[in-house]
## 1
Amino acid sequence: MATIKAGIVGYGNLGKSVEAVIKQTSDIELVGVFSRRDSLDTDAPVIPVADVAEYADKIDVLYLCLGSATDIPEQAPEFAKYACTVDTYDNHRDVARHYSAMQDVAEKAGNVAVVSTGWDPGMFSLNRVYAAAVLPGAQQNTFWGPGLSQGHSDALRRIEGVASAVQYTLPAEEALDKARRGEAEGITGKNAHKRQCFVVPESDDAALKERIENDIRTMPDYFVGYEVEVNFISQEEFDKNHTGMPHGGHVITTGELGATRTHHTVEYTLELDRNPDFTAAVQVAYGRAAHRLKESGQTGAFTVLEIAPYLLSEKSLEDMLREDV
Amino acid sequence: MATIKAGIVGYGNLGKSVEAVIKQTSDIELVGVFSRRDSLDTDAPVIPVADVAEYADKIDVLYLCLGSATDIPEQAPEFAKYACTVDTYDNHRDVARHYSAMQDVAEKAGNVAVVSTGWDPGMFSLNRVYAAAVLPGAQQNTFWGPGLSQGHSDALRRIEGVASAVQYTLPAEEALDKARRGEAEGITGKNAHKRQCFVVPESDDAALKERIENDIRTMPDYFVGYEVEVNFISQEEFDKNHTGMPHGGHVITTGELGATRTHHTVEYTLELDRNPDFTAAVQVAYGRAAHRLKESGQTGAFTVLEIAPYLLSEKSLEDMLREDV
């Protein structure tokens, strides 16, 4: 199989992880990193993002490593004109709109745009759909953490007056046990978790801090409706205690089946030492799928739900049938 | 969406569970149970299996609830001539051959044959492929139980001179922990598990028991290479202690990712009160997928690896994009 030629757009934590994960594959080759900056700390070619159109024939897949808050909605459709794209758009309530925007552009351009990969959305979405599809009347709960939420930290950092910020999400242990027993009725993502924010303000001004806290608590989708804890800390404390990026979580689904309504529990668990590395690993694998879908004549937008599992693997289907089924 | 018209072939534990699970769905309707027997303990129509050809126009999906040891290899291709089929063929090392046999017949007949659904193969296969695809150089282990293995019990019961039999598979706890730490090198399915057989012989004759035990220990794929414990017990003891059907297990995958080789663990766990009910639930969901694939113009054999997740669900893709991604 020919090597898949890849580009990375954006070179934050996720872009750097994608670069490193691509080095761990044998079938994907990095052509370059597209950036608005002239130089980056990478040994890969750095290409002005404005030149992306010139690379349409040299790149099979563009990994869009851009923030979900504003960059993906504003910029992703443009990139789908030039190559297949894979993004990690993580605003769950807006996925359908983003999907539709990418569909129009990718179909017209004859490309495949895979949207909202990563682990949630992504691997967790897959597990929600599989488990609920096989268990009629399933009870299903998703729990996050303990760990750092990249999307929510990103949202905090975009608030004016914030110098540094992280957001940790913590699941309630008793909620996990209730979910496994199938007694989680009434438990929602919102009441089973706490959103803990550590924020370094640009100054110690009380009015500034009050406005930042208000901006956090009133941010729709991200914070409204959750138990939110806002802690203002110094840059020193931030650098010392809040630069790791562990994460993980559980998708727990239960259902009562058959004539005697027997109890069945499906649990999918992730324990991730470094969130952007795993997000990148999922994104990289879906680049393989995007390329193969296009090669087989498909175009348009795809979520992970519409992509057959074997398309993600470096292995041939024949090897999988022999070794993995 | 029109109701999917289903038939069940075979009415053992699995067939009965499929019947009960179909009742829990709102989009699948049971036309009848195909059987060689005249009457069955069911309120569904019982149809002679020899008449299946006459039902080709009245049935969308045939759920093949037949044993893997001989029935599926011998009979499944015949059924694929008349309708889409879904089976739970569980002889892992023979899946590729079975797939190929079903491919020929189903393609010629314009039907879709989904092979080897259930949970292992089935949901476990999916999780093995997804986790290994996203973690380059993954270390992966599958653990079964504690629980009853239907396929292996079936194999025991087919040995001449066996009146009743069950086989339990037990995972080693320390093997689970090693796998989560990524230190499971050298651990195989075979040395992390014990296969425990409880067999009721047709008579108490010593030579009979010796021959049965030898037949078990030398059965390829099923028992050769495993630590096997064979216990001969009375029918009374069997009826009292060995008629439940719990099962479950874990697929544990770890990988080291990115520039600093951070550790990542993916674990998929099933805890099933009644194995045939869950196997049936997965099989029923893949019937939905088989029908939809055929409706979209596809034909031939499919494993779970080749089927996009959204095709399994009663929900529309639009609802999933809004609620599950």
## 2
Amino acid sequence: MSTDSDDTPDTEVAREKLIDLAAEFYDQFAEGDVPTMTIPTRTKSNIEYDEDKDVWVYGDRTSTRSAKTVSGAEKLLKATYTIDFLARQLDEDRSSTLRELYYLSESWDVEEAQFNSQDESNDLVEDLEIVSDVTREDFHMRPEESGATIMGPLKLREQTRRGEREIHCQKDVGEGGYQIPNNPDTIEFLENDADFVLCVETGGMRDRLVENGFDEEYNVIVVHLKGQPARATRRITKRLHDELDLPVVVFTDGDPWSYRIYGSVAYGSIKSAHLSEYLATPAAQFVGIRPEDIVEYDLPTDPLSDSDINALESELEDPRFQTEFWKEQIELQLDIGKKAEQQALASRGLDFVTDTYLPERLSEMDVI
Amino acid sequence: MSTDSDDTPDTEVAREKLIDLAAEFYDQFAEGDVPTMTIPTRTKSNIEYDEDKDVWVYGDRTSTRSAKTVSGAEKLLKATYTIDFLARQLDEDRSSTLRELYYLSESWDVEEAQFNSQDESNDLVEDLEIVSDVTREDFHMRPEESGATIMGPLKLREQTRRGEREIHCQKDVGEGGYQIPNNPDTIEFLENDADFVLCVETGGMRDRLVENGFDEEYNVIVVHLKGQPARATRRITKRLHDELDLPVVVFTDGDPWSYRIYGSVAYGSIKSAHLSEYLATPAAQFVGIRPEDIVEYDLPTDPLSDSDINALESELEDPRFQTEFWKEQIELQLDIGKKAEQQALASRGLDFVTDTYLPERLSEMDVI
């Protein structure tokens, strides 16, 4: 197997940072101290909104894992075995999934180092991300599924383990588009003729935009979010914004769960607050479906369920939604008691979304 | 927008068959008869196993929709409006999703023709498939999501609405692979250097095989099933088998739900019995995870839940699983009370699946 991406600086940096962590335990032992590892407390109460960066980050509270107790010592032992595995994985330019790590631990020679559940190994990998300031992708840990796609006027180079591939995301792909790899930092953007990026929640709407040639007519890079977007999808969206200086617009269903999808693209999530700077695109704008669209375009709707209402009310308290715009929209939605899907726009004809809705709205937003 | 695929014979045939259905209503009116539509009864009791073709098909029982009653007349009215929409869609070389059809009906001028729920429009489209003997894909109805991928020594030509694309599913794609389009009958197989097709349930295992270069070493076309496979995935699997004369092997988790995934690739499902001949690959073989693997390789397991046990017991009664092999495996599994995931093979090391497990098993099965 080719190892073209071996010894790239990122891989080397990640490996060194991991080894440094283990070396710290070693030094603590050598100095006669009880080994410890200190990490930010990862609870909702220790999440802060960073006004400057516009993203969620961890607060100042920390907790310490110490080998003073048996359970603390076991945690550090597991960390050491995991660091050893990851360092070797990086050395050999391999990768693995979180689930494989969990199963693989069964082959470790010390039983106390083996994980009792996948939650335990997942949490440990997140701890290592936080402490080492290296992302899971740079450890070469893959998710179980990614699967989102890109279609638009963008030519890129992907560094695969079989060599480089240059792919134009309209001319060199089928109607399904370009499949985003698990680690999109293997991608280099070569050329583009794009005016903005449109992130789309559902596959049905993604296919509609592509069929109607919206990406060609408006020079749009269409990113399929596939519901709550995977890390790879959020990462490439951020890179498209930062590196190509393209506006990012998010297009979802009109319900509280979809507003959270927008929130996770724009601001990051509580679960991955340590990665907000790596994954979030604070400049991302929300195009719709907005509650005002339900009224203005008389869209087919479903009534809000109790859990929808609760979710909307909790969004009214959510720092990410403390703007005039969101307050108005959420209060309007609670008032009318209705939600609508992206594809409800089809009630005005299959071309309404690309001929009328998006052009009108994007021009109001100064995107086109 | 280009309309290269306009006027292909398939599109024309589909359009004519739809028009014929509507013409039948017209003739019934003209002769002074009450219009009716007769379709096979679509219940579990009217499903038969076709021994010759090795697939599920509908039995002889039929039910008749007649305009004698208001509700029957409304059903036929909806069918007529839908036929009109589909015929125009084919004429214009457009496509749409089932959900768009449901919403679009709100724009129809006669209120009684509009659908009350998406179940109603979905069922009607299936009825039209059965009566016209044309598949949904040939009506240009897309699913909401497809998203499975292919990686392997296969060069194909996809007819997109922007022209033809020639893609080699190893050399011209990134690590994510080639994205199967919604209607894989737009694909023509050009060249291949493949010895067999391996359909893989989970993304984690698909990525493992690709990382380990299994597709290159054994000349395998790796098809990612993504859990219960979409119609597009089953269709292309069948075409790879039929047209390229390649053995098809299915590799899933070792639990009753995964055996059903194998069953749907091999024999079709009850829900789409009218499509078994179009979607099913009766010659597909099951490689594992088998209950005997749990014992033989001492894999990490989870205990069977009550619903697992019920599902296994119902598979013992299922005509699709009436073979010596499946009886033995299912009885063994009920006996040991355990299930295992594909990735549990990682407990023997990350290369065990590609260096040992698959080569041993596939050679026993005479596939390699």
